[in-house]
Hints:
Blueprint: E1 15-17, E2 24-26, E3 31-33, H1 44-48, E4 57-61, E5 64-68, H2 76-80, H3 84-91, E6 98-100, E7 105-109, H4 113-120, H5 126-129, H6 131-141, E8 162-167, E9 173-177, H7 191-198, H8 200-206, E10 209-214, E11 218-222, E12 227-235, E13 238-248, H9 253-267, H10 274-288, H11 312-317, E14 323-328, H12 338-354
Antiparallel strand pairs: 1-2, 2-3, 4-5, 6-13, 7-13, 8-9, 8-14, 9-10, 10-11, 11-12, 12-13
Helix pairs in contact: 7-8
Amino acid sequence: xxxxxxxxxxxxxxxxxxxxxxxxxxxxxxxxxxxxxxxxxxxxxxxxxxxxxxxxxxxxxxxxxxxxxxxxxxxxxxxxxxxxxxxxxxxxxxxxxxxxxxxxxxxxxxxxxxxxxxxxxxxxxxxxxxxxxxxxxxxxxxxxxxxxxxxxxxxxxxxxxxxxxxxxxxxxxxxxxxxxxxxxxxxxxxxxxxxxxxxxxxxxxxxxxxxxxxxxxxxxxxxxxxxxxxxxxxxxxxxxxxxxxxxxxxxxxxxxxxxxxxxxxxxxxxxxxxxxxxxxxxxxxxxxxxxxxxxxxxxxxxxxxxxxxxxxxxxxxxxxxxxxxxxxxxxxxxxxxxxxxxxxxxxxxxxxxxxxx
Length: 357
């Protein structure tokens, strides 16, 4: 009847038993017991059915694990495409890769999942949506705060640097700029090792400001610390988010402390950014419930400057986007959203066609 069988994210079990009707499955997902089958008066077609748990399609890239409930999807290699170069910038931050720092947060917001997809690559909201964080940073810089534990990221400096956005096939997208204050990042503690192992250019982009969406439901935000977000739609109007802090394996205690404090300050559910964003999503969801959306004008910034070719920075990083926007970081391009919506439309059409509709 579709009842949930596994109730915990991790643990040990010799088998899994449905608490509703008692069917049992081994750790490979194979059905090993159907309660009272002999007296069930099942018809012959039932005997020919597959009673095993559905297998997911699984793939791994570097240390990142991906799964799909549908078999009708391309290989992970094909799906990631040009975005692999951007995942490399995350994984290669440590000689042995990166790891999830113990602890995670899970929360919900009353809005569509695509609002989170947009937000990760939306530079336009930063100064208007997060004034509390900006004011706190300003006070710390002026010496008005006794908080000496955290090296705050000053986003006003991004107005001084060039930057851009890029969209890729299958909905992946990124917003990026060199970091004018890279010495304030935890990773900077190991810059010499990074440069020796990966080269000057790759090390520069590891220390850069980058927000990456691996469409449709994984994000890596790296403007303050390094956060991984996993997006889980619960309904058209509600989304569950699980967020974790990521760090280089074996990094120093000093680097780890800087990383965690910056994560707590900005990204965590108790931080100064996440609550601002989720309230904005819910306000948008309320507005989207209007019977007409003819007034919506939120996707037009950057239209006269977007190009269908690589720019100087994407060439440096080592990937070829479908579209790119290059200018000041705070030009706040919105055309980068388009690739995700094109992918969403294509996936919906493909699904309808597969269902014969």
